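Risk register update: the risk of archive-format incompatibility is retired. Evidence:
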Amino acid sequence: MLTLLKIFLFFVILVFVGGLISRYLLKRFFKKMQQNMHDPYGARERQKKEGKVTIEYDKKQKQGKKYRNDQGDYIDYEEIE
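Archived output:
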């Protein structure tokens, strides 16, 4: 009987502590999501000076060649008038 009471008490404490931890993590997660949705690129754009030109590349797009060597040949052509 005492063992059953210990197991029950352990699960009650586990659920209570798990609820506190999950509440904290969910609050933090939603706060970060709200910040990302509110101003994802605005902070970067405000820091640029007027008249200054910058080129930004997306690292995901620069993964390699778009075409392989075996996809075809280049054909030189002339315009006929």
